[in-house]
Amino acid sequence: MYMNLRTVAAKATAAGLLCLLVLALTASANADDLDTFNKKVDRLYQALTAKQSQMPDSARIGAAPTKTIVVIPCLMAAEGAARPAHGVVEAAEALGWKAVLIDGQGDPSKYANAVQQAINIQADVIALQAIDAGTILGPLKEARKAGIRIVAFGSINTDDVIEAVYPANEEFENDGYALAAAAYKLAGNKLNIIEMRGDEFAGCVRRAAGTQKFIAECKAAGGNCSVLSSENFLVTDLTTRVPQQVIGEVRRHPNFDVLWSAYDAGLNFMIQGLKSADLTDHGFGVGFDANVANINIIRSDGFQKATVGLPLEWVGYAQVDAANRMFLGKDINDGAIKSKVLVKGNVPQQGAWEGDEDFRAAYRKSWGLK
To answer: How many helices (H) and strands (E) does the chain have?
Structure first.
């Protein structure tokens, strides 16, 4: 029988990045001076930016007979949803499955309609990309009643309606803490932020909570950390209102250290706005998801200096692998997927960061493919 990914995630927290973060959280809370706190941040930063050598389980399990998988990204125009969606399609096709991609276009009613389409065509699997289960809980429960398996990326699970979710929900807060630690280090051991939240996504709320935890610990240790302002923005406003929002915040707080964005797609448009207003001569930006456009900015030593990202194509493969394991009656594993802090010194020379190892070969070997 397969395991709920909560069980898998609990095992994963015993090692690797999460262990380092938990140690940092505990130790930092007890730090009695700033020097001790800074040394802990230094060690954490080295671990967060190091090369990752983990690989998915390549032990052969075989491939389930042809299945139909409906892939529903929140918005294909957002790279953080599009890349894992493409990974799902690529992996499904490698297995000989049929993949149907339906763009949610940032509209919850369209997410629900896409789930209904999956039910209508008697799909075997639904793969959500950056859509929280609670947003369309009713339709998802109907899909489960119809016998459809549900896997997801970047989704906060509700009522365990999602059977395998990457990353595990608690990782969002860990990522927020990690990015704050990296930003603090890059800013010269200070962190006074303009916070641009993405409250429509529960994972983004948790990212902000992780950053807030770091700031609280920094203050307790006597460090120079604060939130200068905190504003929410919407994914549907990226090309219109968001650039003006951030221009206003930077003008109100010109001495900020870091512009913190809940996700890279938003930060990209924020940076465009700041450039148009000639406001990129102070501070720098950090974000999440490791989008190619943002990595290009980091690579060229531009305004953005860091991002916390997952190897998103790998995440797509992991979702398909989880579904395949369900159909074969095998245990789901965590896919060995970990976040990484990407900065100028460790970004790939070109293109996207897809992890530091050949995950595709491992999955193909597991599935019995050449």
So the answer is: 13, 11
